[in-house]
Design goal:
The protein has about 270 residues and is an alpha+beta fold. The protein has 11 helices and 6 strands. The chain is elongated and about 65 Å long.
């Protein structure tokens, strides 16, 4: 068993997902399903798992008691397994064929070869790379390095030219005739992306408790400073201070006093 096969090998049908469903075969699915269905907690997962299986397989239900119907799915072309609820019949699955560009998806694009991809492109009415819809190009380029060049047929095959250099670099090539010119489409599968994980040194102790960092100390000190009150900034509010800072307005004579020369008017 290769390293990649070992990595793709599932321990349980519950480990099945949209990515790895393309890497397992029918017999593996059947064996894992029948093993897991012995567990009483399995039934609620059946529908979800069948939806995942449908991404890479044709899935049908059939009545095993009907000889004519059963014969369609027990002829060696399909793999079959039961449901925990026998009233739902048997399940038959068959790997989906990728025969058109529209069969490609972000999940299965990494599970085909560059040669298969270029064969699918060649079936696309011979229009070359520009004839492919942008949405399909996005899917293709998520799994493959793609480059193109259009040159006269005589120049394309010059020794040491673009074609020779690309092939030497591991690219597969598709030649699409365009009159006296040829469009060369180069494809090479991208290497699996490596997921980087940032590890913080001494962030946690051996018991899993988060260690206090210098930044934490600074934050705590900032919080303490916010809680502390500067006495110089506090404005006194007692009555004595209020009146000591109060400036009475200048005495203003009443209008009546001005009119009478300061004498009161007797009624």
């Amino acid at each position: 068993m290769s390293k990649q096969q070992a990595e793709n090998q599932l321990e349980s049908i519950l480990d099945l997902n949209a990515s790895n469903v393309w890497t397992v075969n029918e017999n593996e699915i059947v064996a894992l399903w029948e093993e897991e269905m012995k567990d009483e907690s399995f039934p609620p997962y059946e529908e979800k798992l069948l939806n995942i299986i449908r991404l890479a397989y044709e899935v049908v239900h059939f009545d095993s008691g009907n000889e004519r119907e059963s014969a369609k799915y027990t002829n060696g072309e399909w793999a079959t397994f039961p449901r925990t609820n026998l009233n739902k019949g048997m399940v038959a699955i068959r790997k989906r064929n990728i025969s058109r560009l529209t069969d490609l998806s972000y999940e299965n694009i990494r599970h085909i070869t560059a040669a298969t991809l270029l064969e699918l492109i060649s079936r696309n009415f011979g229009g070359g790379w520009d004839s492919i819809p942008l949405s399909m190009k996005d899917i293709i380029e998520s799994g493959f390095e793609i480059s193109t060049t259009t040159l006269p047929a005589t120049r394309l095959h010059i020794a040491g030219g673009t074609l020779d250099r690309k092939v030497a670099d591991g690219f597969e090539v598709l030649e699409v005739p365009k009159g006296t010119w040829v469009e060369a489409i180069f494809a090479k599968k991208k290497a699996p992306a490596t997921k980087l994980r940032l590890l913080m040194d001494n962030e946690y102790d051996e018991d899993g408790n988060r260690l206090q960092s210098d930044d934490d100390d600074d934050d705590e000190r900032d919080d303490d400073r916010e809680d502390e009150v500067d006495e110089d900034d506090v404005q006194p509010t007692d009555d004595d201070t209020f009146y000591s800072t109060y400036a009475p307005e200048a005495d203003v004579k009443d209008d009546d006093d001005e009119d009478t020369g300061g004498l009161s008017v007797l009624e």
